[in-house]
Amino acid sequence: MVALDSINAFWGKAMSAAQPEITVDTVSAVLKALTGEMAIASQSCCHLDDALGRILEATPVEGRMAVMQELHTVDMLAQRVTAMADFTHKLSQSLAQSGGLDVDGALATITLGEVAERMRAAISADAA
Question: What kind and span of H or E run contains 3?
């Protein structure tokens, strides 16, 4: 669990004296906004996936493999965006419940193993 004091200590060096201290409410609002934007992005990926599906139906057989590869790319993008939305949502929940960020709990919500590992590695590297 990462306490808000740790966040303020980390970012305090980058903040000028004129800027207010980061509060639980501020971090919670930022996380909720990020979660909402990622949900919109995920919906857009679904619309793009549907459009590519319609294009696939109209594509001659010899060109379908290329469209199918793009469908796979869009599907992976949607899964990654959803994973990040779930991650930020869990962080927001833990902050509201305990006043701290349960990073390990939020990482556990990421079902794509490679995404979870990259996130874990990046967070560990930055924390060190």
Answer: strand 2-3
Instruction: Name residues whose C-beta falls within 8 Å of residue 111's C-beta, 6 or more positions apart in sequence.
Output: 83
Tell me the helix, strand and coil percentages in the chain, rounded to 5.
80, 5, 15
Q: Which residue bears the tokens 């709990």?
A: 105
Phi and psi angles of residue 3, each rounded to the nearest 5 degrees, phi first: -80, 155
Residues 6+ apart with CB under 8 A from 76: none
Q: State how far the alpha carbon of 88 is from the alpha carbons of 13, 62, 71, 106, in Å.
A: 24, 42, 26, 7
Per-residue pLDDT of the chain (128 residues; tens, 9 = 90+): 655 565 555 555 555 555 667 788 888 889 999 999 999 999 999 999 999 999 999 999 999 999 999 999 999 999 999 999 999 999 999 998 988 889 999 999 999 999 999 999 998 887 76
Any alpha helices (H) in 4-63, and if so which ranges?
A: 4-12, 24-58
- Residue carrying the six token digits 């990926």: 45
Give Cα 66 to chain centroid, integer Å.
28
